[in-house]
Structure formats: structure tokens, C-alpha cells
Amino acid sequence: MPNVLVTGGTVFVSRYIAEYYVQKGFDVYVLNRNTKPQPDSVTLIEADRHNLGDVLRGYHFDIVIDTAYSANDVEALLDALGSYQDYFLISSSAVYPEYAPQPFKESTPPAVNKHWGKYGMDKIEAEQALLSRNPNAYILRPPYLYGPMNNVYREAFVFDCALADRVFYLPKDGSMKLQFFHVHDLCRFIDVILRSKPENRIFNVGNREAVSVRHWVELCYRAAGKEVTFKNVYEDIDQRSYFSFYNYEYYLDVSAQYELMEDVKPLSEGLEEAFSWYIHHTDNVKKKPYAAYIDENFAK
Q: Which domains does the chain have, with CATH numbers?
């Protein structure tokens, strides 16, 4: 079986990827500083990616899957790798500027997005660093990733509200739309690329259809076995004070992905999986004080 190097491997996307390939029978290596619990059945390469020295020189990797956040991350890994075959960078839709025509296409020139700021710029520079060194690498640009192991307080916040039978405070009329992609489908698409070796090197990935935040909250409550009651917030307040997404609606053109992989996990099913994981791993999520803000400012 092939061997795969996953950078990180301890939190959400990188951990899910590592466990996915373990289940497929691959020899999985994870590269991290060993400060968090490791996935089962992986080989740990304990090192700081910015101080790797010769730790990777003796290895050959069939697949490298990198969740790098910056050009320095990429450069340090490329400098340290021995031999490898296929390289995947998990980038982000944050590389697209908010003023560009939507839906964003892979051909849309990356530029700073005022909503994503430094995070988006760092991802742009990571992509550029990679392609300057390895033009045959693959770059995947997802929208909001979700599913089991998500340590970001997004669907988990709504699950907490549902479990507490809270009224849900919804930004404006709830019509703002979001685009999602299940982390399992991300892994499946990597498999598709490995089999088909497409000429395209950059892919937007995601569910074809976006959903309103109102419907997304309804699906989250339903996954928790609850029905939601809404109150709408029309005041001019930063919605990140009480809601888990920015006031920013965008769409990715994912037609190239769908040409290679037609099916994706239904959002309702994916959220049910996320809930089943969350109720047993609530301490693994970095929670934010949205509910406290609501109680202090709205629920009086």
C-alpha cells in the first residue's frame, strides 16, 4: 500500500485525513511536535516543521498532504523532504477577493480579501511558494469544511443551543447563504485525483448548492433531535459577536470537481455525523462566548 505524510494530524482536517488513510490501509506518517494525542496506527515523526533538519531525508512518500498556513510553512517542508511523488496543499477559498465576480472560479486571480485578511494572504503566499517549487502539485480550495473532529465552534455552537433548548438568534432574515464541504468528501476527492491525475492543478471543492443560514441552523437543530425557534437580529451589530460566521456571502464554482466526483454527502447527513461525534467530544472544540453575549445583550 502507498505511504502518506500528513502534516499535523492531531486536529480536525489533518487528523481526519490521517485516520481516513489509516482506515484505507495506507502507511500513514504524521509530522507534528507531539503536543497533542496522536491518531491510532500512525507513525509519528516528531519535529517542528520549521526546524526539520534531516529528519525527513531518509523517507520516500507516495503522497504528501499539507495543511500549511504560510509560505514559510511550505518552504520549510519542501527544503526538508527527501523524495516524494504527489503533493496536495489544502488551501482555502479565502484566497479570492470579495470584489471579484462570483461564483469564484479557479481562474479568479487571488488577492487580499477584507473579510479574511492575513489568513487569506498567507494562504495565497503558500500556494505561490508551492507552485514555484513544484508546478505539478495539487491545490484544493474548500469553502467551510465541516464534519466529525471539527474543533471550530460553528455547528457545535448550534448543537449547544439545541441541546439547551435555546431560542436561536439569527442574523437579519437568515437568508445569507453559506457553502460547505464535508471533510470526508475532501478525502474522497484526493483519492479521485490520485486515480485520474487530471491536468488541472487547482480545484475549488465544495457542495454545489449553498444553503441559507436559517436552513443550516434548522438542520443542526434537527441533527440534535430538536426544533428551532428563531429571533431575528436586525440591529447593526457585528454578527460574529453572537453567530459563528462572518457577514459575508460567497460562492465557489465547483464544476471542475463535479466533473471528476459527482456525488457528495448530503448536508443533513453530514451534520448528523458531526453531532454524533460532538456529543462525545465536546471538550475538543474551541468554544466562543456567543451564548454569553446573547444572554447579556438580547435575552432580557
A: 3-146+181-204 (3.40.50.720), 155-179+209-250+266-297 (3.90.25.10)
